[in-house]
Amino acid sequence: MQKQIYLDNAATTAVLPEVLDAMLPYFTEQFGNPSSLYSIGSTAKDAITDARERLAAHINANATEIYFTGSGSEADNWALKATMEAYSDKGRHLVTSAIEHHAILHTAEWLEKNGYEVTYLPVDADGLVSPDDLRAAIRPDTTLVSVMMANNEIGTIQPIFELAAIAHEHGALFHTDAVQVLGHIAIDVALMGIDMLSAAAHKLHGPKGVGFLYIRKGIKTRSFIHGGGQENKRRAGTENVAGIIGMAAALDIAMANLDARAAADLALRDDLIARVLAEVPYSRLNGHRSLRLPNNANFSFEFVEGESLLLALDQLGIIASTGSACASGSLDPSHVLLAIGLPHEIAHGSLRLTVGDETTTDDIDYTIESIKQVLERLRSMSPLYEDFLQGKKPISAVK
Length: 399
What we know:
This protein has helices at 17-23, 39-58, 72-86, 102-113, 131-137, 160-169, 189-192, 230-233, 241-256, 258-279, 306-315, 335-339, 344-347, 361-380, 383-389, and strands spanning 5-6, 66-69, 93-97, 117-121, 142-146, 173-177, 196-200, 211-215, 283-285, 296-301, 318-319, 350-354. With 399 residues, it is α/β, with parallel strands linked by helices.
């Protein structure tokens, strides 16, 4: 049986056995509805309360500020739509960045179609938002600034402290999509000045289909789903009890091992980056070299299509990505790579590799050799590469 090397942890992660063990009772013997008054309902309700308190503690929030959702995308939608509506008397202007996850960008487009104004901040060649650009874009009628904590494709970590401070100086609220960050980097919402934060469980070895939105006490947001009185009457629907328990268990484990895991990820990631750039011709690293998620490496390879590279690596047992899993069905080049200034032909040749707890140095060695092998074969079939070798085309890749 061929070895499988999973290097797409930014897309999703496997549920840890300990997390599954914590969840299982709430599918079977403790299956009660948390809104019911009898004992098994109360048991489920108490378990949710405990999970809420644990999750809140990990980001230095109060338990009453954690609202459960079905995903990070739902949390993003809730933060933007409900907040812009609730504060529309102040203004109808939203500021976000050009490299946000589509859960933010498509919600911003929806807001534009419904009478709101949106400013999309540019990023530099490393994918960083400039605080000066935010300062220039913010207006008296700006209600909300939403900038992701770290990019899901290129891993660049944004200057959240500065961006949140600028938003508050001008009377605006600050939201951040932290789906890729939770459980990988320490988060302190109070210290960082974050008013709202989106998170999901499945990026940190928790279950799919559950996330949360942190909403700082005192912020008025409209109810997002109407019906029952769940989530303090802001998000109706019977709670995903097992999922919530799993998310809390996964974050407990992630935070208990945060420093050791980050150090291990960094060592593997840095070795991967250094060797690819040194051993693979016409390659470049996308994203900031040091201000990036510890497990993320994103490359562009000239003269190949990312999809062909991805499928060829899959045949060798290597599971990777060309970018965001949520946009994997699109043939368009990544909006993130275009925003950092890459031309279409190089943006199309991208590969995202995200290491995880199970990744070994042998896996990295095998992956690098496989990339070299596949690129040599794909480039040998590329007329663009042949033209380049014959001196007909200039080199456009950046080493």
